[in-house]
Every structure is written in C-alpha cells, then in structure tokens.
Automatic annotation (TrEMBL):
Protein name: Low temperature requirement protein A
Membrane-spanning parts: 41-60, 88-106, 118-137, 143-165
Keyword Transmembrane: yes
Keyword Acyltransferase in record: no
Species the sequence originates in: Micromonospora globbae
Organism placement in taxonomy: Bacteria, Bacillati, Actinomycetota, Actinomycetes, Micromonosporales
Stored InterPro entries: Low_temperature_requirement_A
A matching Pfam family: LtrA
Key words of the record: Membrane, Transmembrane, Transmembrane helix
Length: 278
C-alpha cells in the first residue's frame, strides 16, 4: 500500500514537473499558426461576427434615436451632432475588440480549443457591450460597458503573455497589455461619471488605444514596433472582413424586408427605395 502511494506521488510529481517545463517553454507557441494551417474562418469566429453585428445594430439604433431628439426643432443640429459623436465614440471600442480578436485568430490557430474559448469569451463580452449601448451615457450602462471592454481586452492578452513564455511575441503582448490597461483606466473612470466628463475621458481612452497601437505600443526597455503585429495569415484576415460585411449586409436586408412586408401601404415609398438600395 505504501509503495503504491509513493509510486502514485512520484507520477504526479513527474507530471507536474513536465507541465511546469512545458509552460516555461511557452505552451502557447504550439498554438501559433503554421504554413499548412487552414485559412478558412471557423464556426466560432462566425458566431463572434454574428454577435458583433448585433452590437453594431444596437449602436446604430441608439444613434438613430439620438438623432431624433424630442422637442428639438429641425434647425437645431447641435444635439443631433452630439448624438452622432457619442455613436462614433462607442463604435471605436467595438471596432478595436473585433480587430484584436481577428488578429489573435489570424496569428494563432483558431481551431485549437484555447483559441475557441478565447473567441467565445470575447463574443460574450461584445454581447454585454451591445446591450449596454443604449444606456452607456446615463449611468450604470456606461460602467458595465467600460468594465467588460477593459477586462476582455486586458485579460485575454495577459493570458497570452503567460502561455507564450519566452517567445519573442511575449514582448509585444506585454507592451500591448500595458497600454490597453492605461486606456482601460480612462474607460472605467468615464463609466463612473456622466455628462461632459465622461465624454472627455472616453475620448482620451480612444486616443490611448489607437494612438499607442499606431506607435507600436512603446515602452521603456521593451522597445516598440508594429511590423510583427501584422505578420499573420492575410487570407484568413481578408475572409474575416468579408464574413463580417456579408453578415451585416444580410441583417440590413432582413430588417428592410421586415419593414417592407409589415407596411400596409402599397409599394412605392421610401421603404421600396431602401429595399432596392439594399
């Protein structure tokens, strides 16, 4: 009995040691795309794009509602332009979430379970962000939008920093994580406020997110550089863009078709023109 217990303990210790060595070498390196990796998008990526189109649809609906300000004269364009600006401000983090997700699935093999779980978590985050859009500037909705966005962006890159080990990509992910955390601080601070302060803080957050990426996420002793960021599977990324556009177009045609069929008037008005345009 004692011998069996000791043997089992030795096996467990050996397994732990092998796993520790495996992670120290960078388990995530095995997840990187290879030349023979398939270029087609996966069903998980398709699901993520569907959720993203839902969030964009919610954002568009909220933007249209802001343009139709109650009690405002048609000549008063100030409130309308403010609503358009808020819509563009919320579009930026959604676009950046999709971009980072597309980059990760173009750099790593999206058919591996680790990448599929990461993509599903990102889809869930986008779903929460989309439902928070209508109330993003009037209280709790803004905080939930900012928290989910920041946790998703920073959290998944932290995981990739850990699993990539000593691979040269580790420096890139450390730099990106730090700058996304800085931008996330502005997003969360903005979510805790309302009014003009919230808008200013979120504008600063967008500047940090996109500006740092444009400069190659520079950090002391870790350097900077953007070339390695875009060394990925170009055909896969092109298919992702095509897939997103097709889903968005299909959703638009469906919405116009429903509006057209539920209209009791005869065809010939603006609805027909919109259907033809779609």
């Amino acid at each position: 009995m004692i011998v069996a217990v000791r043997l089992r303990a030795m096996r467990c210790d050996g397994r732990v040691a092998r796993d520790r060595e495996r992670w120290s070498r960078g388990y995530g390196v095995a997840l990187l795309r290879k030349r023979e990796s398939a270029q087609q998008a996966t069903y998980v990526e398709l699901f993520f794009d569907l959720v993203m189109v839902f969030a964009l649809n919610r954002l568009l609906s909220s933007g249209v509602a802001d343009l139709e300000v109650p009690g405002q004269a048609p000549a008063d364009y100030l409130a309308r332009w403010a609503g358009l600006g808020r819509t563009l401000l919320l579009f930026a983090p959604l676009l950046w979430t999709w971009t980072i997700t597309a980059y990760l699935t173009a750099r790593f093999d999206p058919r591996t379970p680790a990448l599929q779980r990461s993509t599903l978590v990102a889809a869930f985050a986008v779903l929460i962000m989309g439902t928070s859009v209508p109330h993003a500037f009037d209280g709790a909705g803004g905080l939930s939008f900012a928290l989910v966005y920041t946790l998703n962006q920073v959290g998944r890159l932290l995981i990739f920093v850990y699993i990539i080990g000593a691979h040269p990509l580790g420096r890139l992910y450390v730099r990106a994580t730090v700058w996304l955390a800085v931008g996330g601080a502005f997003w969360i601070l903005g979510g805790l406020t309302t009014g003009g302060a919230q808008v200013v803080l979120w504008i600063l957050a967008v500047i940090v997110d996109f500006g740092a990426a444009r400069l190659g996420w520079p950090l002391p002793r870790l350097g900077r550089g953007r070339q390695a960021v875009w060394e990925m599977a170009p055909h896969h990324l092109a298919e992702r863009y095509q897939q997103l556009m097709l889903i968005a177009l299909g959703e638009t045609i469906l919405a116009v078709g429903i509006t057209f069929t539920t209209n009791k008037d005869r065809p010939g008005g603006y609805e027909s023109l919109g259907l033809l345009t779609a």
